[in-house]
Write a structure and sequence with these properties.
Strand 10, helix 9 and strand 11 form a beta-alpha-beta unit. Strands 3-4-2-1-5-6-7-8 form an eight-stranded mixed sheet, with helices on both faces. A seven-stranded mixed sheet has the order 11-10-9-12-13-15-14, with helices on both faces. The longest helix has 44 residues. It has three domains: 180 residues, Glycogen Phosphorylase B (Rossmann fold), CATH 3.40.50.2000; 168 residues, Vaccinia Virus protein VP39 (Rossmann fold), CATH 3.40.50; 69 residues. The two termini are 68 Å apart. It is an alpha/beta fold.
Length: 468
Protein backbone atom coordinates (compact mmCIF):
# COMPACT_ATOMS: atom_id res chain seq x y z
CA UNK A 1 0.00 0.00 0.00
CA UNK A 2 1.33 3.43 -0.96
CA UNK A 3 2.34 5.53 2.02
CA UNK A 4 1.29 9.14 1.51
CA UNK A 5 3.12 11.93 3.25
CA UNK A 6 0.52 14.61 2.58
CA UNK A 7 -3.23 14.68 2.06
CA UNK A 8 -4.17 17.65 -0.11
CA UNK A 9 -7.74 18.97 -0.16
CA UNK A 10 -8.11 21.62 -2.86
CA UNK A 11 -10.44 22.81 -5.61
CA UNK A 12 -10.07 20.82 -8.82
CA UNK A 13 -8.74 23.84 -10.71
CA UNK A 14 -6.05 24.56 -8.10
CA UNK A 15 -2.40 24.39 -9.29
CA UNK A 16 -0.77 21.48 -7.47
CA UNK A 17 2.84 22.11 -8.53
CA UNK A 18 3.65 23.27 -5.00
CA UNK A 19 3.11 19.68 -3.77
CA UNK A 20 5.13 17.91 -6.49
CA UNK A 21 8.02 17.15 -4.13
CA UNK A 22 5.83 15.11 -1.84
CA UNK A 23 3.99 11.82 -2.11
CA UNK A 24 0.51 13.23 -1.75
CA UNK A 25 -3.05 12.00 -1.99
CA UNK A 26 -5.22 14.44 -3.89
CA UNK A 27 -8.76 14.98 -2.64
CA UNK A 28 -10.04 17.35 -5.32
CA UNK A 29 -13.49 18.89 -5.31
CA UNK A 30 -15.64 21.13 -7.45
CA UNK A 31 -18.92 22.90 -6.81
CA UNK A 32 -21.92 21.98 -8.99
CA UNK A 33 -25.27 23.71 -9.42
CA UNK A 34 -27.35 20.70 -10.46
CA UNK A 35 -27.34 17.58 -8.33
CA UNK A 36 -29.69 14.80 -7.12
CA UNK A 37 -31.99 15.60 -4.21
CA UNK A 38 -31.18 12.60 -2.05
CA UNK A 39 -30.13 14.22 1.22
CA UNK A 40 -26.43 14.09 0.39
CA UNK A 41 -24.32 17.13 -0.44
CA UNK A 42 -21.29 15.49 -2.06
CA UNK A 43 -20.68 12.60 -4.46
CA UNK A 44 -17.50 10.81 -5.58
CA UNK A 45 -17.29 11.00 -9.38
CA UNK A 46 -13.80 9.59 -10.05
CA UNK A 47 -10.95 7.96 -8.20
CA UNK A 48 -7.47 6.49 -8.69
CA UNK A 49 -5.08 4.93 -6.16
CA UNK A 50 -3.71 8.40 -5.40
CA UNK A 51 -6.66 10.74 -5.97
CA UNK A 52 -10.39 11.24 -6.06
CA UNK A 53 -12.73 13.89 -7.39
CA UNK A 54 -15.76 14.94 -5.36
CA UNK A 55 -18.73 16.94 -6.63
CA UNK A 56 -20.11 19.26 -3.95
CA UNK A 57 -23.47 21.01 -3.93
CA UNK A 58 -22.93 24.70 -4.68
CA UNK A 59 -24.81 25.72 -1.53
CA UNK A 60 -21.90 24.34 0.53
CA UNK A 61 -19.61 27.10 -0.72
CA UNK A 62 -21.07 29.49 1.84
CA UNK A 63 -20.28 29.33 5.55
CA UNK A 64 -23.83 29.73 6.81
CA UNK A 65 -25.80 26.54 7.31
CA UNK A 66 -24.19 24.66 10.18
CA UNK A 67 -23.75 20.93 9.75
CA UNK A 68 -25.43 21.10 6.34
CA UNK A 69 -22.16 22.58 4.99
CA UNK A 70 -19.98 19.62 6.07
CA UNK A 71 -20.14 17.97 2.65
CA UNK A 72 -16.51 16.77 2.53
CA UNK A 73 -16.15 15.52 6.12
CA UNK A 74 -17.00 11.88 5.38
CA UNK A 75 -14.73 11.63 2.33
CA UNK A 76 -11.94 13.45 4.14
CA UNK A 77 -12.05 11.36 7.33
CA UNK A 78 -12.15 8.11 5.37
CA UNK A 79 -9.20 9.27 3.24
CA UNK A 80 -7.27 10.03 6.44
CA UNK A 81 -7.84 6.53 7.81
CA UNK A 82 -7.10 4.91 4.45
CA UNK A 83 -3.99 6.91 3.46
CA UNK A 84 -2.56 7.65 6.92
CA UNK A 85 -0.73 10.87 5.93
CA UNK A 86 1.74 12.76 8.12
CA UNK A 87 0.10 16.11 7.42
CA UNK A 88 -2.99 17.62 5.79
CA UNK A 89 -3.10 20.71 3.58
CA UNK A 90 -6.45 22.43 3.04
CA UNK A 91 -6.57 25.05 0.28
CA UNK A 92 -9.21 27.74 0.78
CA UNK A 93 -11.61 28.32 3.66
CA UNK A 94 -15.11 27.60 2.30
CA UNK A 95 -18.22 26.10 3.85
CA UNK A 96 -17.23 22.55 2.91
CA UNK A 97 -13.52 22.83 3.85
CA UNK A 98 -13.57 24.86 7.08
CA UNK A 99 -14.57 21.91 9.24
CA UNK A 100 -11.84 19.63 7.85
CA UNK A 101 -9.34 21.34 10.12
CA UNK A 102 -11.41 20.28 13.13
CA UNK A 103 -11.70 16.71 11.81
CA UNK A 104 -7.92 16.50 11.39
CA UNK A 105 -7.49 17.80 14.92
CA UNK A 106 -9.95 15.19 16.20
CA UNK A 107 -7.77 12.49 14.62
CA UNK A 108 -4.55 14.15 15.87
CA UNK A 109 -3.24 14.85 12.37
CA UNK A 110 -1.47 18.23 11.89
CA UNK A 111 -3.18 20.44 9.33
CA UNK A 112 -2.01 23.44 7.32
CA UNK A 113 -4.49 25.95 5.92
CA UNK A 114 -3.76 28.02 2.82
CA UNK A 115 -6.06 30.95 3.36
CA UNK A 116 -7.75 32.90 0.61
CA UNK A 117 -10.31 35.70 0.81
CA UNK A 118 -13.51 35.30 2.84
CA UNK A 119 -16.48 33.65 1.19
CA UNK A 120 -18.94 35.83 3.12
CA UNK A 121 -18.35 39.09 4.98
CA UNK A 122 -17.67 38.19 8.64
CA UNK A 123 -20.09 40.84 9.88
CA UNK A 124 -22.97 39.15 8.02
CA UNK A 125 -22.52 35.82 9.82
CA UNK A 126 -24.39 34.59 12.88
CA UNK A 127 -22.48 34.32 16.14
CA UNK A 128 -22.58 30.50 16.04
CA UNK A 129 -21.11 30.50 12.51
CA UNK A 130 -18.36 32.89 13.58
CA UNK A 131 -17.58 30.66 16.56
CA UNK A 132 -17.38 27.63 14.26
CA UNK A 133 -14.96 29.34 11.86
CA UNK A 134 -12.74 30.59 14.67
CA UNK A 135 -12.76 27.11 16.20
CA UNK A 136 -11.75 25.60 12.86
CA UNK A 137 -9.07 28.23 12.30
CA UNK A 138 -7.60 27.50 15.76
CA UNK A 139 -7.23 23.81 14.88
CA UNK A 140 -4.75 24.47 12.07
CA UNK A 141 -1.09 23.82 12.76
CA UNK A 142 -0.12 26.78 10.60
CA UNK A 143 -1.93 29.21 8.30
CA UNK A 144 -0.43 30.57 5.07
CA UNK A 145 -1.91 33.04 2.64
CA UNK A 146 -2.24 32.60 -1.10
CA UNK A 147 -2.83 36.33 -1.65
CA UNK A 148 -0.15 38.95 -2.13
CA UNK A 149 -2.27 41.48 -0.25
CA UNK A 150 -4.58 39.59 2.13
CA UNK A 151 -7.69 41.21 3.51
CA UNK A 152 -6.51 42.77 6.77
CA UNK A 153 -10.03 42.98 8.13
CA UNK A 154 -10.51 39.29 7.45
CA UNK A 155 -7.22 38.44 9.21
CA UNK A 156 -8.08 40.62 12.19
CA UNK A 157 -11.48 38.98 12.50
CA UNK A 158 -9.72 35.59 12.60
CA UNK A 159 -7.41 36.90 15.29
CA UNK A 160 -4.05 37.15 13.45
CA UNK A 161 -1.86 40.10 12.61
CA UNK A 162 0.03 38.72 9.60
CA UNK A 163 0.59 35.48 7.71
CA UNK A 164 3.44 33.92 5.77
CA UNK A 165 3.04 33.40 2.04
CA UNK A 166 3.24 30.19 0.02
CA UNK A 167 7.02 30.45 -0.04
CA UNK A 168 7.04 29.02 3.48
CA UNK A 169 5.08 25.92 2.49
CA UNK A 170 7.98 23.68 1.44
CA UNK A 171 10.01 24.07 4.61
CA UNK A 172 6.86 23.78 6.74
CA UNK A 173 5.82 20.50 5.09
CA UNK A 174 9.37 19.20 5.33
CA UNK A 175 9.36 19.76 9.07
CA UNK A 176 5.90 18.27 9.63
CA UNK A 177 6.59 15.21 7.47
CA UNK A 178 9.69 14.45 9.53
CA UNK A 179 7.71 14.46 12.76
CA UNK A 180 6.42 11.25 14.31
CA UNK A 181 3.52 9.77 12.38
CA UNK A 182 0.05 10.25 13.91
CA UNK A 183 -1.34 7.21 15.70
CA UNK A 184 -4.16 5.83 13.58
CA UNK A 185 -5.70 3.49 16.15
CA UNK A 186 -9.22 2.14 16.30
CA UNK A 187 -11.50 4.16 18.53
CA UNK A 188 -15.26 3.65 18.60
CA UNK A 189 -16.20 7.32 18.81
CA UNK A 190 -13.86 8.24 15.96
CA UNK A 191 -15.04 5.27 13.89
CA UNK A 192 -18.64 6.38 14.37
CA UNK A 193 -17.75 9.97 13.52
CA UNK A 194 -15.95 8.97 10.30
CA UNK A 195 -18.90 6.90 9.07
CA UNK A 196 -21.44 9.71 9.44
CA UNK A 197 -22.50 12.12 6.73
CA UNK A 198 -23.51 15.30 8.54
CA UNK A 199 -25.66 16.88 5.79
CA UNK A 200 -27.55 13.60 5.32
CA UNK A 201 -28.14 13.19 9.06
CA UNK A 202 -29.29 16.77 9.33
CA UNK A 203 -31.72 16.19 6.48
CA UNK A 204 -33.04 13.07 8.24
CA UNK A 205 -33.35 14.56 11.72
CA UNK A 206 -34.83 17.88 10.66
CA UNK A 207 -38.28 16.23 10.52
CA UNK A 208 -38.13 15.47 14.27
CA UNK A 209 -38.02 19.16 15.19
CA UNK A 210 -41.83 19.31 14.82
CA UNK A 211 -42.23 17.22 17.97
CA UNK A 212 -40.75 20.03 20.09
CA UNK A 213 -42.70 23.02 18.83
CA UNK A 214 -43.42 25.21 21.85
CA UNK A 215 -40.78 23.55 24.06
CA UNK A 216 -38.54 25.85 26.09
CA UNK A 217 -35.92 23.41 27.38
CA UNK A 218 -34.98 20.39 25.30
CA UNK A 219 -32.22 17.93 26.20
CA UNK A 220 -30.64 15.68 23.56
CA UNK A 221 -29.26 12.61 25.32
CA UNK A 222 -26.19 10.99 23.74
CA UNK A 223 -26.20 13.84 21.24
CA UNK A 224 -22.94 12.95 19.46
CA UNK A 225 -21.65 15.92 17.50
CA UNK A 226 -24.95 17.74 18.07
CA UNK A 227 -26.64 17.61 14.70
CA UNK A 228 -30.15 17.61 16.13
CA UNK A 229 -29.19 20.47 18.45
CA UNK A 230 -28.27 22.45 15.35
CA UNK A 231 -31.66 21.57 13.79
CA UNK A 232 -33.44 22.86 16.91
CA UNK A 233 -31.30 25.99 17.00
CA UNK A 234 -32.20 26.83 13.41
CA UNK A 235 -35.87 26.70 14.46
CA UNK A 236 -35.33 28.92 17.49
CA UNK A 237 -35.76 26.14 20.07
CA UNK A 238 -33.45 26.28 23.10
CA UNK A 239 -31.64 22.99 23.64
CA UNK A 240 -28.62 21.41 25.29
CA UNK A 241 -26.88 18.10 24.67
CA UNK A 242 -25.14 15.37 26.65
CA UNK A 243 -22.21 13.43 25.13
CA UNK A 244 -19.88 11.07 26.97
CA UNK A 245 -16.82 11.38 24.69
CA UNK A 246 -14.93 14.59 25.60
CA UNK A 247 -13.44 15.02 22.10
CA UNK A 248 -16.80 14.70 20.37
CA UNK A 249 -18.42 16.99 22.95
CA UNK A 250 -15.70 19.59 22.38
CA UNK A 251 -16.23 19.27 18.63
CA UNK A 252 -19.93 20.02 19.16
CA UNK A 253 -19.14 23.00 21.34
CA UNK A 254 -16.97 24.29 18.52
CA UNK A 255 -20.20 24.64 16.52
CA UNK A 256 -21.50 27.02 19.19
CA UNK A 257 -23.69 24.36 20.79
CA UNK A 258 -24.28 23.80 24.49
CA UNK A 259 -23.08 20.27 25.21
CA UNK A 260 -22.16 18.72 28.56
CA UNK A 261 -19.53 15.99 28.75
CA UNK A 262 -21.21 13.26 30.77
CA UNK A 263 -22.70 9.79 30.67
CA UNK A 264 -26.40 10.00 29.81
CA UNK A 265 -27.54 7.99 32.85
CA UNK A 266 -25.31 9.94 35.22
CA UNK A 267 -26.59 13.21 33.75
CA UNK A 268 -30.22 12.20 34.30
CA UNK A 269 -29.52 11.16 37.87
CA UNK A 270 -27.97 14.51 38.73
CA UNK A 271 -29.97 17.04 36.72
CA UNK A 272 -33.00 18.91 37.95
CA UNK A 273 -36.59 18.04 37.09
CA UNK A 274 -38.68 20.22 34.82
CA UNK A 275 -37.32 19.38 31.38
CA UNK A 276 -40.17 19.81 28.89
CA UNK A 277 -38.57 17.89 26.04
CA UNK A 278 -36.09 15.01 25.73
CA UNK A 279 -34.73 13.69 22.45
CA UNK A 280 -32.92 10.36 22.54
CA UNK A 281 -31.77 9.04 19.17
CA UNK A 282 -29.93 5.73 18.68
CA UNK A 283 -29.11 5.15 22.31
CA UNK A 284 -31.39 2.41 23.67
CA UNK A 285 -29.98 -0.21 21.27
CA UNK A 286 -26.63 0.26 23.03
CA UNK A 287 -28.11 -0.83 26.37
CA UNK A 288 -29.25 -4.11 27.95
CA UNK A 289 -32.89 -4.33 29.01
CA UNK A 290 -32.26 -3.40 32.64
CA UNK A 291 -30.53 -0.16 31.61
CA UNK A 292 -33.28 0.64 29.12
CA UNK A 293 -35.81 0.39 31.97
CA UNK A 294 -33.59 2.58 34.11
CA UNK A 295 -33.05 5.30 31.52
CA UNK A 296 -36.78 5.41 30.72
CA UNK A 297 -37.55 5.72 34.45
CA UNK A 298 -35.07 8.59 34.82
CA UNK A 299 -36.41 10.37 31.75
CA UNK A 300 -39.98 10.00 33.03
CA UNK A 301 -38.92 11.50 36.35
CA UNK A 302 -37.10 14.46 34.79
CA UNK A 303 -39.79 15.42 32.27
CA UNK A 304 -42.32 17.94 33.48
CA UNK A 305 -46.02 17.09 33.38
CA UNK A 306 -47.19 17.47 29.78
CA UNK A 307 -43.60 17.24 28.51
CA UNK A 308 -42.60 15.21 25.49
CA UNK A 309 -40.10 12.38 25.01
CA UNK A 310 -39.01 11.34 21.50
CA UNK A 311 -37.12 8.08 21.02
CA UNK A 312 -35.50 7.02 17.76
CA UNK A 313 -33.89 3.61 17.35
CA UNK A 314 -33.39 0.87 14.73
CA UNK A 315 -36.64 -0.80 13.72
CA UNK A 316 -36.42 -4.61 14.07
CA UNK A 317 -39.15 -4.86 11.42
CA UNK A 318 -36.85 -3.21 8.87
CA UNK A 319 -35.23 -5.81 6.62
CA UNK A 320 -32.51 -3.36 5.62
CA UNK A 321 -31.69 -2.60 9.25
CA UNK A 322 -31.53 -6.29 10.09
CA UNK A 323 -29.33 -7.22 7.11
CA UNK A 324 -27.32 -4.11 6.28
CA UNK A 325 -26.92 -1.67 9.13
CA UNK A 326 -27.37 -2.80 12.71
CA UNK A 327 -24.29 -4.94 13.25
CA UNK A 328 -21.90 -2.42 11.73
CA UNK A 329 -21.85 -0.72 15.11
CA UNK A 330 -19.70 -2.68 17.60
CA UNK A 331 -21.58 -1.25 20.60
CA UNK A 332 -25.08 -2.32 19.54
CA UNK A 333 -26.48 -4.76 22.10
CA UNK A 334 -29.87 -5.78 20.69
CA UNK A 335 -32.94 -4.67 18.77
CA UNK A 336 -35.91 -3.31 20.72
CA UNK A 337 -39.37 -3.57 19.26
CA UNK A 338 -41.46 -0.38 19.59
CA UNK A 339 -44.21 -2.33 21.33
CA UNK A 340 -41.74 -3.39 24.03
CA UNK A 341 -40.52 0.19 24.57
CA UNK A 342 -44.11 1.44 24.58
CA UNK A 343 -45.19 -1.08 27.21
CA UNK A 344 -42.29 -0.13 29.51
CA UNK A 345 -43.00 3.56 29.04
CA UNK A 346 -46.70 3.10 29.79
CA UNK A 347 -45.91 1.80 33.29
CA UNK A 348 -43.98 5.03 33.93
CA UNK A 349 -46.78 7.41 33.00
CA UNK A 350 -45.52 8.01 29.45
CA UNK A 351 -48.35 7.78 26.95
CA UNK A 352 -47.62 7.01 23.30
CA UNK A 353 -48.91 9.97 21.36
CA UNK A 354 -47.44 9.31 17.91
CA UNK A 355 -45.46 6.63 16.10
CA UNK A 356 -43.73 6.59 12.72
CA UNK A 357 -45.86 3.52 12.01
CA UNK A 358 -48.80 5.92 11.69
CA UNK A 359 -47.16 7.52 8.66
CA UNK A 360 -45.88 4.25 7.24
CA UNK A 361 -48.08 1.32 8.32
CA UNK A 362 -46.37 -2.07 8.34
CA UNK A 363 -48.74 -4.36 6.46
CA UNK A 364 -47.58 -7.98 6.54
CA UNK A 365 -48.88 -9.97 3.57
CA UNK A 366 -49.06 -13.79 3.69
CA UNK A 367 -47.94 -15.63 0.60
CA UNK A 368 -47.56 -19.20 -0.56
CA UNK A 369 -44.29 -20.74 -1.64
CA UNK A 370 -46.25 -22.44 -4.46
CA UNK A 371 -47.21 -20.17 -7.38
CA UNK A 372 -50.92 -19.57 -7.89
CA UNK A 373 -52.20 -21.68 -10.85
CA UNK A 374 -53.17 -19.59 -13.86
CA UNK A 375 -56.32 -20.16 -15.93
CA UNK A 376 -55.71 -21.82 -19.31
CA UNK A 377 -57.01 -19.74 -22.20
CA UNK A 378 -58.60 -21.66 -25.11
CA UNK A 379 -56.73 -20.87 -28.33
CA UNK A 380 -58.79 -19.05 -30.93
CA UNK A 381 -59.51 -21.48 -33.86
CA UNK A 382 -58.44 -20.73 -37.39
CA UNK A 383 -61.36 -19.64 -39.59
CA UNK A 384 -61.05 -22.72 -41.77
CA UNK A 385 -61.36 -24.96 -38.70
CA UNK A 386 -64.68 -23.62 -37.43
CA UNK A 387 -66.93 -24.57 -40.42
CA UNK A 388 -66.48 -26.90 -43.38
CA UNK A 389 -66.23 -24.71 -46.46
CA UNK A 390 -68.07 -26.22 -49.47
CA UNK A 391 -67.40 -25.17 -53.02
CA UNK A 392 -70.40 -22.99 -54.07
CA UNK A 393 -72.66 -24.40 -56.78
CA UNK A 394 -73.67 -22.71 -60.05
CA UNK A 395 -76.78 -21.14 -58.53
CA UNK A 396 -74.88 -19.63 -55.61
CA UNK A 397 -72.24 -18.25 -57.94
CA UNK A 398 -74.94 -16.56 -60.04
CA UNK A 399 -76.55 -15.06 -56.93
CA UNK A 400 -73.12 -13.80 -55.76
CA UNK A 401 -72.69 -12.08 -59.14
CA UNK A 402 -75.95 -10.28 -58.44
CA UNK A 403 -74.84 -9.38 -54.91
CA UNK A 404 -77.25 -11.82 -53.29
CA UNK A 405 -76.85 -14.77 -50.89
CA UNK A 406 -78.83 -17.96 -50.92
CA UNK A 407 -80.81 -19.02 -47.90
CA UNK A 408 -78.63 -22.10 -47.49
CA UNK A 409 -75.42 -20.06 -47.55
CA UNK A 410 -76.91 -17.47 -45.17
CA UNK A 411 -77.76 -20.19 -42.61
CA UNK A 412 -74.29 -21.67 -43.03
CA UNK A 413 -72.64 -18.27 -42.40
CA UNK A 414 -74.96 -17.65 -39.48
CA UNK A 415 -73.95 -20.95 -37.88
CA UNK A 416 -70.31 -20.13 -38.46
CA UNK A 417 -70.78 -16.75 -36.76
CA UNK A 418 -72.54 -18.36 -33.79
CA UNK A 419 -69.66 -20.82 -33.38
CA UNK A 420 -67.05 -18.06 -33.46
CA UNK A 421 -69.09 -15.90 -31.05
CA UNK A 422 -69.25 -18.78 -28.59
CA UNK A 423 -65.48 -19.25 -28.73
CA UNK A 424 -64.89 -15.50 -28.37
CA UNK A 425 -67.21 -15.26 -25.38
CA UNK A 426 -65.45 -18.18 -23.71
CA UNK A 427 -62.06 -16.64 -24.35
CA UNK A 428 -63.17 -13.24 -23.01
CA UNK A 429 -64.22 -14.80 -19.71
CA UNK A 430 -60.91 -16.65 -19.52
CA UNK A 431 -58.90 -13.48 -20.27
CA UNK A 432 -60.83 -11.52 -17.62
CA UNK A 433 -60.11 -14.23 -15.07
CA UNK A 434 -56.42 -14.35 -16.10
CA UNK A 435 -56.08 -10.55 -15.74
CA UNK A 436 -57.68 -10.69 -12.29
CA UNK A 437 -55.23 -13.41 -11.26
CA UNK A 438 -52.28 -11.39 -12.59
CA UNK A 439 -53.49 -8.31 -10.72
CA UNK A 440 -53.73 -10.34 -7.51
CA UNK A 441 -50.22 -11.72 -8.04
CA UNK A 442 -48.85 -8.23 -8.77
CA UNK A 443 -50.58 -6.76 -5.72
CA UNK A 444 -49.13 -9.46 -3.46
CA UNK A 445 -45.62 -9.05 -4.90
CA UNK A 446 -45.82 -5.27 -4.57
CA UNK A 447 -46.96 -5.54 -0.95
CA UNK A 448 -44.02 -7.90 -0.27
CA UNK A 449 -41.66 -5.52 -2.05
CA UNK A 450 -42.85 -2.63 0.11
CA UNK A 451 -41.47 -4.35 3.21
CA UNK A 452 -38.02 -3.41 1.87
CA UNK A 453 -39.07 0.25 1.90
CA UNK A 454 -39.96 0.36 5.58
CA UNK A 455 -37.87 2.96 7.41
CA UNK A 456 -34.67 1.73 9.01
CA UNK A 457 -35.61 3.56 12.20
CA UNK A 458 -38.73 3.83 14.31
CA UNK A 459 -39.71 7.10 16.01
CA UNK A 460 -41.95 7.19 19.09
CA UNK A 461 -43.33 10.33 20.73
CA UNK A 462 -44.52 10.02 24.31
CA UNK A 463 -46.33 12.58 26.48
CA UNK A 464 -46.03 12.57 30.23
CA UNK A 465 -49.48 12.37 31.76
CA UNK A 466 -50.42 14.84 34.47
CA UNK A 467 -51.22 13.78 38.03
CA UNK A 468 -54.49 11.87 38.27
Amino acid sequence: MTQFQVLVVAPLECNRDMFSRWRYYDLAFRFIEEYPIDGLSAWRVDSTPSSEIIDVAAQCFQYSGGYAQHALNRFFSQALLRCRPRVVVVVGLTGCTADLLRVADLLNVPAVLILEGPVEPPESLSESTRQWLRSSFACSQRVLTAQESPDRKWLAWLGVDSLDGLGALESLLGRLVEQSAPEYQYDYSIYEFCQRDHPLLMNMQRADVRHFEGSTRVVDLACGVGIFLDCLRQHGISAEGVERDPRVAQYARGMGLKVATDDALNYLENTANGIDGIYCSHFVEHLPVADVQRVLLLMAQRIASGGVLVLVFPDPESIRSQLLGFWRDPEHVRFYHPELITSIAATLGLELEWSSYMEQPHRVVPFSDVPMPMVQVTPFPALTESVHIRRPGLGERLLRKLGLVSDRRFRRLEGRLDALSHVLDQQSRQYIEAVAQLEQRTSTLWALNQTWAWNDNVTLRFRKRGKQ
